[in-house]
UniProtKB/TrEMBL annotation:
Residues 5-242 form the ABC transporter domain. It comes from Thauera sinica. SMART domains: AAA. This is ABC transporter ATP-binding protein. Signal peptide: none annotated. One of its GO terms (molecular function) is ATP binding. The keyword Transport applies. InterPro entries: AAA+_ATPase, ABC_transporter-like_ATP-bd, P-loop_NTPase. Keywords: ATP-binding, Cell membrane, Membrane, Nucleotide-binding, Transport. The keyword Membrane applies.
Length: 262
């Protein structure tokens, strides 16, 4: 089993506030890993640390076997091109159409001519499950679910090996959220992606996740299959997985047929 990401002994601190201390985490090749934890436990900071947007005060982050923090800039830029990131707010440029948003990394980072970038952008937009014509629209003309898909198309632009998603289903209605989950699962299977998801969504965890990492007490308390995590003796885990919403999500996952059986 190959680890694509290895976080070791990471400390993150903002002023006097210590967010992470001696935090370890592995992400395995090809898995869908969900990172959960109470509000403010540092899930987004962890994502930003792994993709190189936040420099930890201590520890190491190895991605694809390379130490992100000590790589020379050119090698680091090459490594970062293997990441696709979908930020919490979608982070599309509002003055550009969806197609222009998706083409931008192809022009800026891959150096493609505009016409080729436009052709590839159309493919990525289709891959993200958007209808033909969505590329000509501006982000403000799209529904919340379509904005997420457009941001996903942009995250897929450079053919990443690993996809980082920060609360991808937040703000979507349950049907939209379930469809987005299935899209992630399909893309993982079709493209052989590794997927790192920061989420509060119990349905996502129950339906598409291979392993779950729980952030608590400034570190990853447990990182394992859902059954193992849910059986861990910890107050937050009990409340989260065995409270009313956790029980409902588990029940729904048991009674909803998997897509291939449907
Ligand atoms: N750049 C920063 N400067 C100062 N403090 C920060 C910075 N980034 C994050 N923090 C603090 O670190 C803590 C963890 O933030 P983070 O956004 O990672 O939490 P989270 O677990 O993702 O929370 P939520 O589930 O509410 O989104 C918070 O208290 C936040 O205020």
């Amino acid at each position: 089993m190959t680890n694509i990401v290895e976080v070791r002994g990471v400390r993150n601190q903002f002023g006097a506030q210590v967010v992470h201390d001696r935090l370890d985490l592995d992400v395995r090749r090809g898995e869908i890993l969900s990172v959960v934890g109470g509000s403010g436990t540092g899930k987004s900071v962890l994502l930003r640390t792994i993709v190189g947007l936040n420099r930890p005060a201590a520890g190491s982050v190895r991605v694809f076997g390379e130490d992100l923090l000590t790589l020379p800039p050119a090698r680091r830029a090459a490594l970062e091109r293997r990441f696709g990131v979908l930020f919490q707010k979608g982070a599309l440029f509002s003055s550009l159409t969806v197609a222009e948003n998706v083409a931008l990394p192809l022009i800026e980072h891959a150096g493609l001519p505009a016409a080729e970038a436009a052709g590839l952008a159309a493919l990525k937009i289709a891959l993200a499950g958007l209808p033909a014509g969505a590329g000509d629209k501006y982000p403000s003309d799209l529904s919340g679910g379509m904005v997420k898909r457009a941001a996903l198309a942009r995250a897929l632009a450079l053919d990443p090996d690993i996809l980082f998603l920060d609360e991808p289903t937040a703000g979507l209605d349950p049907i939209g959220a379930a469809a987005f989950d299935q899209l992630i699962l399909t893309l993982r299977d079709a493209l052989g992606l590794t997927v790192f998801i920061v989420t509060h969504d119990l349905d996502t965890i129950h339906t598409i996740t291979d392993r779950v990492a729980v952030l608590a007490q400034k570190r990853v308390l447990v990182n394992d299959r859902l059954e193992v995590v849910a059986a861990t003796d910890d107050a937050w885990i009990r409340e989260y997985f065995h409270g009313p919403r956790g029980r409902a999500a588990a029940q729904a996952a048991r009674t909803t047929p998997a897509p291939e059986d449907a």
